[in-house]
Fold:
Amino acid sequence: MSKLTGTHSEASEIDFTTLTTVPGTLKVHGAPIQILDLPGIIEGANDGRGRGRQVIAVARTCHLIFIVLDVLKPLGDKAIIESELEGFGIRLNKKPPAITVRKKDKGGIAITNTVPLTNIDQDEIKAVLSEYRINNADVAIRQAGATADDLVDVIEGNRVYIPAIYVLNKIDAISIEELDLLYRIPMSVPVSSREWWNIDELIEKMWTTLNLVRVYTKPRGLAPDYSQPVVLRRGKCSVEDFCGAIHKEIAKQMKYAIVWGASAKHSRGQKVGLEHVLEDEDVVHISKK
Structure:
């Protein structure tokens, strides 16, 4: 953390050295990314042990989680951390289930599915709904392999779906053969924080996983400002999102926008409205009413 962001974060060979949340900022491809160094999570954190609830509550607000593991005992610690985060409603490296539950006043339970139900049947669906006192609802399942847990997640409605990268630290203490085995763990990057090995790969993995869109502003009559991009998330990168990231009133004042870059139809620029979806490294000029 200290080397990445220039912010001091206590570190040592002893586990759980970090006792408070330490914020820092890392610039990647011109985009400032805030990184929070959180205290370690212990077994029982979801029940409040070791200030676990406060730590996990902060993790819920993040767009990406680094789970730092010791290469000498990665799988045991990985299982504990995943279990604690799961218990607090965090779903790692998963997408929200393609299931909808629409409550209604009458008519009982109507279930439709566009894929075969292999891990749950209609009786089990009705049993889960009954547990939540839902007696009238339309249920639509569009996800292959949907489970009862997926249905519960949709009903509860308070789950967050966050990508995670497993940072396998201390590779300077293992052999090449052992390192090859570590790469079989999905979404993992082996590193050595002491020797500063493979940090570039970790940063690139972070960048691609975050899936960010950098958009540059262009004032009237001036060259684009490439020094401070407006950073948006893929899926929320329309011109309206761009305006909102600068100031909430700009979208209301906008007459039209001119866009240059990958999302524009013409190299000379394209005149667009608020709904236009921007691509990475587009340049935008906002014309006000």
Notes: The first strand starts at residue 22 and ends at 28. The CA atoms of residues 260 and 267 lie 7 Å apart. The chain has three domains: 2-94+160-210, 99-156, 214-288. The chain has a mean pLDDT of 91.
